[in-house]
């Protein structure tokens, strides 16, 4: 056995032992997953969409903004997330917010975190659009996630007086769309092609371009899937692909599409940021550093 292989086995064993003692680490979930697999989760999302209908938004102005946050990894502390929620709640020109996954970091946190978010944002919590990240489905938590948030794959339209903007939410908690979700995406993009959308935006958890090994032990797309998705996005005029997962900001242009990895909101990060997107005839964005939240 080669030295590198031996080292990997030893490190993996140590990580397993350490992780077994830490409630934040689901070692089995990182390797094989315990929640239902992507095709099953997709079916659950479609069932929810069918019974609850679309969450489209109608505005009285052609210009608006929306907030984007990701990777809170909440286990107890909540300050960075509350700062993000407070800013969104008090911004009169922000009708909705996107959250790109990894809301929680430990078992049994989804119920109380969800209630805290709804209390913080009041009625505006109905306009928070989420997708699940890999940590959200660890510990076999998908059943709780869908109970509190419903669907993780869907689309919605923002209708303004003169335009329509299309938003597509994909679920990539396992680093893949799976067969059924990919088929759904192809059909959705094909049906949307002849419609006169001003902007087309995709948001999800996992980043498409893997430039280092920081997330090598969890979810990342297969190279073949990256090829297909980037080709689809270029073909159908997707302007932005918004994601998290890697925790560090990265902006990549590929075949006319802008791929934006948003910084993590995780509590221990000294330079946590969230993103504000400005929508008009053009798309613009800025990143806002997280300070201490005001009392809600």
Summarize the structure.
By secondary structure, this protein is an alpha/beta fold.
Description of the structure:
The chain is 34% helix and 20% strand. It is α/β, with parallel strands linked by helices and 296 residues long. It folds into two domains: 32 residues; 255 residues, Metallo-dependent phosphatases (Purple Acid Phosphatase, chain A, domain 2). It has a seven-stranded mixed β-sheet. Helix 9 links the parallel strand 7 and strand 8. The N terminus is likely disordered.
Which terms would index this structure?
Purple Acid Phosphatase, chain A, domain 2, 34% helix, 7-stranded mixed sheet, alpha/beta, 20% strand, 9 helices, globular, 2 domains, 5-stranded mixed sheet, 296 residues, single chain
Identify the CATH homologous superfamily of the largest domain.
Metallo-dependent phosphatases
Structural class: alpha/beta
Question: Using only CA atoms, what is the Rg?
Answer: 19 Å
Beta-strand content estimate? 15-25%
**Helix share, percent:** 25-40%
Shape: globular
N/C terminus separation: 58 Å
Strand order of the largest sheet: 1-5-6-7-8-10-9
Our count of domains comes out at: 2
CATH architecture of the largest domain: 4-Layer Sandwich
Number of helix segments?
A: 9
Mean pLDDT: 87
CATH class of the largest domain: Alpha Beta
CATH topology of the largest domain: Purple Acid Phosphatase, chain A, domain 2
Note the quaternary state here. single chain
